[in-house]
Amino acid sequence: MQVAVIADIHSNLPALEAVLEEVGRLPIYCAGDVVGYNPFPNEVIALLKERRAVSILGNHDHAVLTGDTSWFNPIAAAAIEWTARELTQDSLGYLRSLPRSYENAIYMVHGSPKSPLEEYVYGDAPDHRLLGMFDHTRRDVIVLGHTHVPFVKGLGGRLVFNPGSVGQPRDGDPRASCALLDTEEKEVEILRVAYDIDAVARAILERGLPQPLALRLYGGW
Q1: Distance between CA atoms of 177 and 194, rounded to whole angstroms?
Q2: Alpha carbon distance 131, 135 (integer Å)
Q3: pTM of the entire structure?
Q4: Is the CB of residue 69 less than 8 Å from the CB of residue 76?
Q5: Residue 218: pLDDT band with limits 50, 70, 90
């Protein structure tokens, strides 16, 4: 079975629309951080609901719900506070419904199984650290988000991967990132999809979000 895996949309509607057009009608799995940073939180949530995406909670989603921005930098905190003011009751209800992990054919968590909202796991992590994550699940495929940097790591019949970020890539490539996963063959393809960055940058400035959030989209950082 082939599915589309995404993460870290961060309220970037044009990027999400471009990714969904690229993957067609495949089932959608989202590894958290639906909102934050960018200016279209309600529209992104509505589209995920329309596509019946399976999503989990990310640290920005959690911060919007709790109001706790104590461990975020000032720019991220400002975006979280802006998002909390903008969200409709329906959108808040959607975020409240998201679990911290998902387990079916795959195991999906935003940060790591040990620390679902906080821990960053990159592709250069030692094998023993990645293999240790399988102590938390019986599945052979683990999906992570949070870092905004894609990677795929095979571990002797097991697989750990991060699809990268739809809405705010941080690997030097400004195109939206996502992944196609074959759940039977345990094979992953990372896709990069161009979108209208100018439209998002204009909306960031028009809606009063911090200017660096617009500038960083062009450099993929």
Answers
A1: 9
A2: 8
A3: 0.97
A4: yes
A5: very high
